[in-house]
Design brief:
The complex is a heterodimer of chains A (48) and B (429). Chain A is mainly α. Chain A is 65% helix and 0% strand. Chain A has one helix at 2-32. The longest helix of chain A has 31 residues, at 2-32. The termini of chain A are far apart. The mean pLDDT of chain A is 81. The relative contact order of chain B is 0.08. Chain B is 70% helix and 0% strand. Chain B has helices spanning 2-12, 22-37, 42-58, 65-86, 93-115, 117-128, 144-159, 168-175, 189-199, 204-229, 247-278, 296-302, 305-324, 333-352, 356-379, 385-391, 394-411, 418-428. Chain B contains 18 helices and no strands. The model of chain B has no long low-confidence stretch (mean pLDDT 91). Chain B has 3 domains: 2-201, no CATH class; 203-287; 289-429, no CATH class. The chains are: A mainly alpha (48), B mainly alpha (429). Chain A binds chain B through residues 13, 17, 20-21, 23-24, 27-28, 37-38, 40-48, and chain B through 17, 19-20, 140, 142, 145, 182-184, 213, 216-217, 219-220, 222-224, 226-228, 230-231, 260-261, 264-265, 268, 351-353.
Amino acid sequence: MKSINQFWKEHGGLILLTFEIFWVVVFLLERVSGGGGSAIPQFVYVNF
Amino acid sequence: MILESLSHIAHWLPSTVFFSDLPFWGYFIITVILIRSVSGHSRVRDFLLLAVNLLMLMALPRFDTTELTIYCGLAVFTYVVGYILLGDFVKNHTGRVSLGAMGIIAVILALAFFKYRIVQEVVIRDFSGSDRGGVAKFVFLIGISYASFKAIHFIIESYKKNIQNLRFIEFLNYLMFFPSFVSGPISRYNDFYENSASAKGSRLRDDLLPGVKRIFHGLFKKFVITVILFPHTLIHPKTPPVSELALWQVLMGLYAYALYFYFDFSGYTDLAIGTARLLGFKLPENFNLPLLKKNIQKFWANWHMSLTGWLTDYVYWPLVRRLRNYEMLRKYPLLISNTAIVLTFFLCGAWHGEGVNFILWGMYHGVGIVIVNLYQKWKRQVRHPLALKYYSSFLSHCIGVALTFNYFAIGLMFLFDAQDIASVFGRLF
């Protein structure tokens, strides 16, 4: 358990960033290729 | 003349929505390169940043020379009021109070005119002498709320003589700083100035990783999480009307909407903070895991923090001080605090939109905090060891988080049509 915590402390940020970049790219590619992905709604707070 | 030249350049550029359009990111990369390449030359950098801010605003959809002129007018007006208040040009107390009050009222009137359709229609109808309601095309000035908050803060702090290092160009950059222009976070002038001064000597490599990380957090929230959540919310175009849904479906839709609301707005904030960081600026935080807080009071202390901080400083505390002047109220500090909270949230609701439902939404949250205050006062009197053990337990925390999330999610119902609200609350109670 301790070693997992240590590993996450050292590499967690990088793993999270890679995960986020991967999914952002997947969703954007789906959007660009005109796939069945949902349209990106406008930011909620733009009209406030 | 300058605005016209900018307008010509802006017309040549494709318009873009901040953070969610590809052209924005193209402009942004060029901006980072330009600003960073002159970061050692203080004056050049300030002028370049101003030019970039103005061009970025002109690239917004529905934003043209007229809108920019209005903003420049607002900026010049606010600066002049602040300059007079800071410079001791008006010596007597009454004159200073009148000037400050006049400045604030003028900014609030501009905010009301460009934010609320009904105000704009009434003013235009009265000035044009036409009896027909709704003849005018509504002109919504994007970013007016946040610019007004900054302007009011600047006038009040100038009155208190708390503004340091006043410079016109810095003030223009503060008011129209493009990453935080549309939806905040609401920074304070002195912080912005200090940031700007330290940004002049900063190196891109120090800010690159934190900035890029923050941008990807924001993109992930906006392009992945909200896209997944949106079809399940009650505001999705394909969702049937609320009156046709079962109660559990409404509740699920509200939960999805609450999560969507959080990820959308905190994603926007991440993008604003990340892009500002790449330019060398550190904007204030806006969210600190509000959906994991154990009561609605803590929720609001961690949700849209730059707005709640602004409301606390410029609405709540002045109200408390005013209420303390009444001899009969002075003996009841909790009553003073609770009254000020409800009034502050009344204004918070009115700011969120025109219509009674927004005011009700604000009051709903104000009353929620009042209930928490009363409950905590009662809780302090409890001495039973079992109860005390429960209050500090993880279970108590989890129940608190669940109740707070439900309170927030159900409160979103107030943002819907009156018929939908009546339909849901009719079935609930």
